[in-house]
Amino acid sequence: MPSPGTGRRRPARGPQPQPQPQPQAPVPAAPLPPGIDEYAVFRTLFAAYPDALIVADARGTIVLANPAAAGLLGYSIAELVGLNVDVLVPDAIRPRHAAYRSAYAHQPKPRPMGTGMELVAKRRDGSEVMVEIALSPLQSHGLPLVVAAIRGIGAYPRVRQALQRARYGEHLAQLGRLAVDSRDPQVLLDRVPAIAAEALEVGVSMVFLLEADRLHFRVASGVGQVGGETLGSLITNRPDTPQGFVLAEGRPVVVDDYRTERRFLVPPAYLAAGLASGLAVPLTDRGRIIGALTVRSHEAGRFGDDERRFLESLSNLLATSLQRAESEAALNHAQRLESVGQLTGGIAHDFNNLLTIIQGNLQVLEELPALADDAWGQHLVDAATRATKRGAELTGKLLAFSRRQVLQPNPVDVDVLLNSLADMLRRTLDQRIRIDVEVAPACPPVLADPGQLESALLNIAINARDAMPDGGTLRFRADPCSALPAEIRNEPDAPRAAGELREGFVAISIADTGAGMPDEVKERAFEPFFTTKEAGRGTGLGLSTVYGFVKQSHGAVVIESAPGAGTTLTLFIPQHRAANAPVHEAASASDAVPMGLNVLLVEDETEVRAIAQHFLGTLGCRVSEAASAEQALLALGPDAGFDLLITDIALGAGMRGTQLAAQAQQRFPAMAVLLMSGFSAELLDADRDSPPAWELLRKPYSRDELARAIARVVALR
């Protein structure tokens, strides 16, 4: 028979009872030396233990507490004794804690520190402290009690650092939410120093922004200003100043002790205010430093890597928000100008048709025999003619602003242009205005419409004259530059094509020593019809015309001004690319129109068509009329024999004049084509898409202008 230790087991018939852990007998303590009271030792040990110790009975009532517990929880020992431990648990987790304590009472067991169970204890004043708890039941020692050892883990260096980083992260999230909700950059500027001071627990936090001249910092916002660093004050940008040193270094700067700092001059006000240490990080916008964010503390060595990273994050978030606000403002401005440009372009189109009728009829009246000897009648016609010319100039300015004028870019010698313009201005402007010209040696020519460029510079010079009623200095300067400055290169409508940037620009600046402009005027300076001049002294189209011309020429324009500091406008005009420049040669033909020229005139406006027919008749042409492209095609039969097609581009709802001209030349390749329009955008499209032999004529036109256009196009047949 097998022995009991090796015999077969019977098959199991259901769950078998598991062996229960037997309570361990207490380990006998080593005997104390003679003369030492065991009870006194344990009382002293309980009181001197560095962790908080609380002894509670089965109902959770505290029967003993040591001084460490009183200090951690904010009670006296007498106040703790008799309290229920539930009082030390935050209200939100008290029900869960009560259930846990009830379960523990039914099956008590030791739970040492470091098991990962982290709790929050409620102090007497209502504040909370993160703790770790070890439990030791005393039932096996014959006592119906439990000892709780409590340790405040916020005192651990690693935990303290984690909590600190979490606090920094919460402050960054707070600023991020504000940046999303608010579109006003000033709200963020005001809030950032307060967040930095609160998170880093310092008394001084400032935001310094560079002025446009980059010679001064302006105090944009701050908490706890010191000395002269008050809101709005200017501080010189020098490398030996705290702010200038940050700009010169281009990276975060930590000062452990201002009393021993030697890299820059510490303002005496810092030391007088008891400031001991500081931290500053640059504010960067698209790779360019625009200011600095600084914090200062009364405690030496206060700032480390965590503080630096936090302040850099604040700085990046602020700079991004400022950049977004600036980009949105520039985009809104560009969209507003574009909308106004489209409106003015359409107005100019209709206005030019009206001017064509008025100007044409005035020319007919001027030549009537009945007015030949009527001096008063001739005077009235001349006055009306001058008015139509001013109206045409006004529409030209509107088209220039809306970038819908027809430009004829040619190489322009900047040196010759500026000196010629300066000579003319010296003879016409106030003699108290001194005019200087500075052109860089070997300055390359620019590619622009010479007349429009000169007109733009003249507009600026006239504005400068008006800003210097008591005299001053007007300075023209030209310098080549390889690319646009960063502040305008990132504008929504800045030139971006590789071809526009490959050869660089010439910066032509016009500076005056006049009154200057406040920011609210400077922001609107390029808007059409905006003027600060008295009624009747300006149309408000001068600078808007400059803006439109420069943009249409694939350039850019910058205005710098401040009250009392004068104004500088800089035009960035593309350099002339000699290898690819088109050759513009004047037509060699005379302005004489061949007698008996057979012309097909297509114009949908009846009165405009009548004026054109009259002009052509006086020039000796044989004229056939059509009010639409469809009528013109019917007239272009095999035996038509037309020498010249003159057609408006916009012909109502039917076929356009450019389409008509293309079909007409397919039928009669030798026929010349002259296109007309009062809408320069149409002429721009035709100039780009039409054959070089086609001629373009802008409305309103005189009989002489029509004759010259006909002579040029007929000479090219």
Tell me about this structure.
- The model is unreliable at 1-25, 496-502, 535-541 and 579-590 (pLDDT under 50).
- 41% of the residues lie in helices and 20% in strands.
- The strands form five sheets. The chain has a six-stranded antiparallel β-sheet, sandwiched between helices. The protein has a five-stranded antiparallel β-sheet with strand order 2-1-5-4-3. A five-stranded mixed β-sheet has the order 13-15-16-18-17, covered by helices on one side.
- The chain contains 22 helices and 23 strands.
- Helix 9 runs antiparallel to helix 11 (375-401), helix 9 (305-366) crosses helix 18 and helix 19 runs parallel beside helix 20.
- The protein has four domains: 38-155, PAS domain (Beta-Lactamase, 2-Layer Sandwich); 160-329, Beta-Lactamase, CATH 3.30.450.40; 410-580, 2-Layer Sandwich (Heat Shock Protein 90); 598-715, Rossmann fold.
- It is an alpha+beta fold.
Task: Chart the SSEs and their pairings.
Blueprint: H1 38-48, E1 52-57, E2 62-65, H2 67-73, H3 77-80, H4 94-106, E3 118-122, E4 128-137, E5 145-152, H5 157-181, H6 185-200, E6 204-210, E7 216-223, E8 234-236, H7 242-249, E9 253-255, H8 268-272, E10 277-285, E11 288-297, H9 305-366, H10 369-372, H11 375-401, E12 410-412, H12 414-428, E13 433-439, E14 446-448, H13 450-467, E15 472-481, H14 486-489, H15 498-501, E16 505-512, H16 519-522, H17 542-552, E17 556-561, E18 567-574, E19 598-602, H18 606-618, E20 622-626, H19 629-635, E21 644-648, H20 657-667, E22 672-677, H21 680-689, E23 695-698, H22 703-715
Parallel strand pairs: 13-15, 19-20, 19-21, 21-22, 22-23
Antiparallel strand pairs: 1-2, 1-5, 3-4, 4-5, 6-7, 6-11, 7-8, 9-10, 10-11, 12-14, 15-16, 16-18, 17-18
Helix pairs in contact: 5-6, 5-9, 6-9, 9-11, 9-18, 11-17, 13-17, 19-20
